[in-house]
Amino acid sequence: MPRNRKKPSPGDSQPIQRYCPGSLAGRKMSLVESVKRSLRKGNEEERLWAVSVIPLLALQSETCADVLELVETFKPVMIGILTDILEHVKSANLLSPRDLMAMLDSSHLDVRTASGETLALMHELLCQHDSSFLQEDLPDLLNTVRKLSTDAYRFQGKRGRKLQRITFRDVLLYLQEGVVPEMRIKFGDETLLLNSWMMHRRYDCLKDVLGMALNVHLEKNALVRDLLKLGLKWIGL
Length: 237
Prior knowledge:
Blueprint: H1 21-25, H2 28-41, H3 44-59, H4 64-89, H5 97-103, H6 109-126, H7 138-150, H8 158-177, E1 183-187, E2 190-194, H9 197-210, H10 214-220, H11 222-227
Antiparallel strand pairs: 1-2
Family: Belongs to the IFRD family.
Organism: Anopheles arabiensis (Mosquito)
Protein name: Interferon-related developmental regulator N-terminal domain-containing protein
């Protein structure tokens, strides 16, 4: 949520406590080969483990060029896996905007808010290429979002009702006026500005992966800084 982020608690999982690319440099290739081997020959559990390790390796890279090198290294084996997956889901219907609109009527708060934010994100990204995206369904969508921004299920707690209203007020404002809720996050002597649905989503994903170590990576990690458009960190002598 743009304005209602849950702060990680001390007991949350913290997969990367420090940014230490130098300590991994000597073992990088052996780690990469181990992950590739698990992707090719491992069972389902091993493959899931291997897939989860790839972004962690990327986050511990020294430069964005190192990340591109990792992508090229894993691309052949990942394409093979994705091809197998696509063969299994080829006949399945992927979620469409109308499917997401239907999920706005879910009795579960998390489903409603995730669907609303996903629709806003899809609109932001796809309208850059197709200005007619969602236009046919926009009147119905606006009516639903407007209702959710003022009403809430009676059985919801006070916090749930507040969360729903804030979320859908943000979505409604965006769909009507193109305004995305801004959020400024201070760390050290810098401020991170989140001013698009994509930037909000990137921040949330990084927070999920890095947990309490996020601020360390915001200050020192070139990839994280590039993803969040923070620029290079200049350290005075």
